[in-house]
Specification:
The structure holds 2 protein chains of 2 kinds. Helix content of chain A is 0%, strand content 45%. Chain A has no helices and 5 strands. By secondary structure, chain B is of the alpha/beta class. Chain B has a single domain, classed as Peroxisomal Thiolase, Chain A, domain 1 (3-Layer(aba) Sandwich), CATH 3.40.47.10. A 5-stranded mixed beta sheet of chain B has the order 1-7-4-2-3, sandwiched between helices. The chains are: A mainly beta, B alpha/beta.
Chain lengths: 84, 379
């Protein structure tokens, strides 16, 4: 799933997040259509929220997803970042 | 189908910090029994719609719990389908009567949400989504915001038009003493309210609520004139939003509606009143299009122009105030919708009565559209 490119087909900016994500808000979440046609939902990183638009080209990357408690495993997942 | 909806009861919806789920259930059930005019002993089974009692309250096994609480020594079942739990509970109740397993059954929808922190409720509600959606940090306002943005881009739907849904539903709720919000709002107030998940703002969103609703159905010929349940249909779609072909419609609603109209032998233009699942302003827009009341891209403008507001000659939508303003105790919502139809069809809706309403439709959605339930009632 890493290094796959695609384009943003719709998105939102989450301003009232679930508990685990409180420290990240506001953050963008987008539906991305990957080359090949499959669609995924992922957080958009490494860009300002104003830069997000329909058709923005992105690539999948691995990132920490939320901040765990000290004794917990650090969660990683797929996010996307723009290719400008 | 020879199934009659003979009684309905709805508690006040809102932040009911002093009222337990047991009390809510008792109140709704007592009102429904009284409305039906039958003794409690006539109720042969109980179907409970609820979503969050386990994750928020640590309480499962709701069938037995509420059977005991309501004093029913009867078979009892809890049905879960996210925000469509209430509609699904009614569907299962209808099936049980259709199969002749029982003649008279009660459906109870109940939810207690406001005793918990909003972040915890947001996390719990995301139980209705996929693991990937949860990992992305998405919320339900966020998922519907993604649908709203796609709809706005494809059909030039505007934020002001979407605000019209909230304005209408708050107006209807101002005539419903059971509603959580009885205050009216303006388009300007909706537009100026805090952003929750762009482009959806606070006043585009239904609230977190407590409440219960109950409906009693029977295959026995009722003593008084009662509406018949002429269609009960369910459809499902992918659990997650990303896997859907289209982001501008809910395919499950289309499928369930088509099935329901065939079962009832009626078409969208025959419907007098509808209670649709307006968890967000975009959701009512999608519902009105996907059920077939309006062509794609036309519903938001029509709602904003007042075409489905009380007093209009044709279809009137969400006389209860909808989820937006009547409130959205998730498991209770689908049952409340049908309770509202029963009240309307029997002429008991007071100031918000739609005169001469004969045919009503309820649309209840679970998650971001993974489950859709449609009921049609006729008097």
């Amino acid at each position: 799933m890493l290094g796959r490119t695609g384009r943003i087909v719709s998105w939102t900016i989450i301003r009232v997040p679930p508990g685990d994500f409180s420290y990240q808000a506001p953050y963008p979440v987008a539906i991305v259509k990957l080359a090949g046609g499959r669609k995924i939902i992922a957080q958009v990183v490494d860009c300002e929220t104003e830069e997000i638009r329909f058709g923005l080209k992105v690539v999948t990357v691995v990132r920490r997803t939320s901040r765990p408690e000290v004794s917990e495993v650090i969660p990683y997942g797929i996010k996307v970042k723009p290719i400008f | 189908m020879n199934i009659y909806a003979i009684g309905s009861g709805v508690t006040k919806f809102g932040e009911l910090w002093g009222t337990s789920p047991r009390i809510l259930a008792k109140k709704a059930f007592a009102e429904a029994l009284d409305d039906a005019g039958i003794p409690k002993g006539r109720v042969e089974a109980l179907f409970v719609g609820n979503m969050l009692s386990g994750i928020l309250g640590g309480q499962e096994h709701l069938g037995a719990l509420f059977a005991q609480e309501l004093g029913l020594n009867a078979p009892a079942f809890k049905i879960e389908g996210a925000c469509a739990s209430g509609g699904l509970a009614l569907h299962n109740a209808v099936n049980s009567v259709l199969s002749n397993q029982y003649q008279t059954v009660a459906v109870l929808g109940v939810e207690k949400m406001t005793d918990h922190k909003p972040e915890d409720v947001a996390t719990a509600l995301m139980g209705a989504g996929t693991d990937v959606e949860r990992m992305s940090g998405a919320t339900f306002p966020g998922l519907y915001a993604i649908l709203a943005r796609a709809h706005m881009a494809e059909y030039r739907t505007t934020e002001e038009e979407l605000a019209g849904v909230s304005v209408k539903n708050h107006f209807h709720a101002s005539l419903n003493p059971k509603a959580q919000f009885t205050l009216r709002v303006t388009v300007e107030q909706v537009m100026k309210s805090t952003l929750i998940a762009d482009p959806l703002k606070l006043l585009d969103c239904s609230p977190i609520s407590d409440g219960a609703a109950a409906v009693i159905i029977t295959s026995r010929k009722p003593a008084k004139k009662s509406p018949k349940v002429v269609a009960s249909a369910v459809a499902t779609d992918t659990l997650g939003l990303a896997e859907r072909e289209s982001l501008t419609e809910l395919a499950a609603t289309k499928k369930a509606a088509k099935k329901a109209f065939t079962l009832a032998g009626v078409s969208p233009s025959d419907i007098d009143i509808a209670e649709v699942h307006d968890c967000f302003s975009i959701a009512e827009t999608l519902a009105l299009e996907d059920i077939g009341f309006y062509p794609k891209g036309r519903a938001a403008g029509a709602v904003a122009r007042g075409e489905v507001t009380l007093g209009s000659k044709g279809l009137v939508v969400n006389t209860s105030g909808g989820l937006k303003a009547c409130g959205h105790p998730v498991g209770a919502t689908g049952v409340k919708q049908v309770a509202e139809l029963i009240k309307q069809l029997t002429g008991k809706s007071g100031r918000r009565q739609v005169k001469g309403a004969k045919l009503g439709l309820a649309q209840n959605v679970g998650g971001s559209g993974a489950t859709a339930v449609i009921h049609i009632l006729k008097i």
